[in-house]
Amino acid sequence: MTTTSDIADKIAGEQNITKAKAKAIVDSVFKEIATAAVSGAETSIPGFGKFKVSAT
């Protein structure tokens, strides 16, 4: 399983930024996806997926 910390570590290395800065960016991305979903908006990330809260 890959965690947000794993993703942040890879980004930090690839972008030559601190792990803390990369983690803050990763956390912000997921926060924005969640916020959009809760508000009813759909988030589409090509090659990864679409996110939207559905009423069931």
Structural account:
With 56 residues, the protein is mainly α. It has a single domain (4-51), classed as IHF-like DNA-binding proteins (HU Protein, Chain A), CATH 4.10.520.10. Helices cover 57% and strands 11% of the residues. It has a two-stranded antiparallel sheet. A hairpin with a 3-residue loop joins strand 1 (43-45) and strand 2 (49-51). Helix 1 (4-15) packs across helix 2. The longest helix has 20 residues, at 19-38. The protein starts with a helix and ends in a 5-residue tail after the last strand.
Summarize the structure.
This protein is mainly alpha-helical and 56 residues long.
Low-confidence stretches: none
Strand count: 2
* Strand ordering within the main sheet: 1-2
**Number of self-contained structural domains:** 1
Helix tally equals 2
- Rounded mean pLDDT is 92
Helix and strand string, N-terminal first? HHEE
Calculate the terminal CA-CA distance, rounded to whole Å.
Answer: 28 Å
CATH architecture descriptor name = Irregular
Computed structural class: mainly alpha
- At the first level of CATH, the class is Few Secondary Structures
Major sheet: size, sense and barrel closure?
2 strands, antiparallel
The CATH homology group name = IHF-like DNA-binding proteins
CATH topology: HU Protein, Chain A
Shape: elongated
Give the helix proportion (percent range): 55-70%
Radius of gyration: 13 Å
Strand content: 5-15%
